Amino acid sequence: MADGLGARLETPLFEQLTLIGVGLIGSSLARVASRKGLARRIVAYDNDPDVRAKVERLALADVVSPSPEKAVQGADLVILCAPVGAMGEIAKTIAPHLAPGTIVSDVGSVKEAIIEAVAPALPGHVHFVPAHPVAGTEYSGPAAGFATLFLNRWCILTPTPDIDPEIVARVESFWSAAGANVEIMKATHHDLVLAITSHVPHLIAYNIVGTAADLETVTQSEVIKFSAGGFRDFTRIAASDPTMWRDIFLNNKSAVIEMLGRFTEDLIALQRMIRHEDGDGLFKLFTRTRAIRRNIIEQGQETAAPDFGRGVAKDTDEER
Ligand SMILES: NC(=O)c1ccc[n+]([C@@H]2O[C@H](COP(=O)([O-])OP(=O)(O)OC[C@H]3O[C@@H](n4cnc5c(N)ncnc54)[C@H](O)[C@@H]3O)[C@@H](O)[C@H]2O)c1
Ligand SMILES: O=C(O)C(=O)C[C@]1(C(=O)O)C=C[C@@H](O)C=C1
Question: Which atom of ligand 2 lies nearest, measured to the CA of 134?
Fold first, then answer.
């Protein structure tokens, strides 16, 4: 098909995929699982009744379950797609209802804290394979998802050493069939890498938009009026979901603080270069950073998904 996802699988990889939390990521998974035939049956649960109604309306799942306990019954793959801070409680709730051999996974943006919260809550007869698709937009909710969100993007798996490699391979096959490139790494390493490539950049965006909005000499209307350039790109990132990002910063505290320390030192060095009119120093850094951007574009990593979400109103009821 023209969407780049390739043909449907002849045999589904799983009998029943249960998604807990059906916002941007959960609904994108539902869409791609349905489009590619990754599971024979898709069951969805969200703790927000309005989201459940929307998931029904958009026909994103075969069954929209009224409770997490019911939703996981019969599942051989359960993926937790709720905010990072909710994962531990969800694991406790579903634990007694998971059949032996079930694979439980997640999509949280932080890995070590999720492993600490989820793994001890699960019974010994299930397998937990933490995952993080490094793909998203600033939009939330079930209408904002799309089937190609994960296409040619990375999905990082962070299994603990006690997990059977064959189980990890099944989760890897799931994400590969959804279009992602899969990489396996330790949770602590994941959290450090994502702190600098995703979490600190979001914090910088939240901060610069907040600072500009607070300036007494620049009125709010001027901030909006003149935000056609660099500032506008920051406002896109700073529009990201407040619950999701609060939970990320609270659960990746030490890595973010470590990277923020380095960032602050480098920022002060730049401030010094400007004060001392060190044009060569500034020119050297800007040349190096331009090369990095060009490298990302050459490797085709800038954006693999269509431009959906960029400038499209949040939560429009589009059919899957
Ligand atoms: N948005 C991104 O760019 C992105 C990218 C990769 C990973 N993630 C991760 O994916 C997860 C979901 O993010 P999203 O962007 O889809 O958020 P979202 O806000 O669009 O969706 C989250 C959904 O979870 C539901 N929810 C909250 N608590 C719940 C609970 N206890 N039980 C059941 N449902 C519950 C909410 O009602 C909401 O519908 C987060 O952990 C986030 O860190 C997000
Ligand atoms: O593209 C965006 O809008 C995103 O913020 C996506 C992004 C990122 O920082 O790359 C955000 C958080 C996720 O954990 C993974 C992806």
Answer: 15
